[in-house]
Amino acid sequence: DNALHTKTYTSPRIISRNTHGTGCTLSSAIACYLALGEPLPDAVAKARAYIVHAIEQGKSVQTGHGHGPLNHGFAPVAMRVLGG
């Protein structure tokens, strides 16, 4: 079956002014998970989870005036060395 399958993702709204860059970060996170060999549905789900946590962890941070960035560095992960 070659029918296009769609999935809807939902999560509770996080009240925060720090959401600047969420779209760019989401697309980059999806690309990174794909580069690590994750299948597309898993890459999207993991990237979304990262975004939700980054917004949650940065919601009360004050950076400058107006809308600030999400907290990209809330949970650093050691890089994997492939091959070799």
Report on this structure.
The N and C termini lie far apart (39 Å). The chain is 39% helix and 0% strand. It is globular. The chain has two helices and no strands. It is an all-alpha fold and 84 residues long.
Keywords, please?
mainly alpha, 84 residues, single chain
Total beta strand runs = 0
How many helical stretches? 2
Which structural class do the helices and strands define? mainly alpha
Low-confidence stretches: none
What is the rounded distance between the termini?
Answer: 39 Å
Mean pLDDT, all residues: 86
H-E order: HH
Question: Tell me about the biggest sheet?
Answer: none
Radius of gyration: 15 Å
Share of helix, binned: 25-40%
Principal-axes shape call: globular
Strand content: under 5%
List the SSEs and their pairings.
Elements: H1 22-35, H2 40-58
Provide a quick synopsis of the model.
The chain has helices at 22-35, 40-58. Helix 1 (22-35) crosses helix 2.
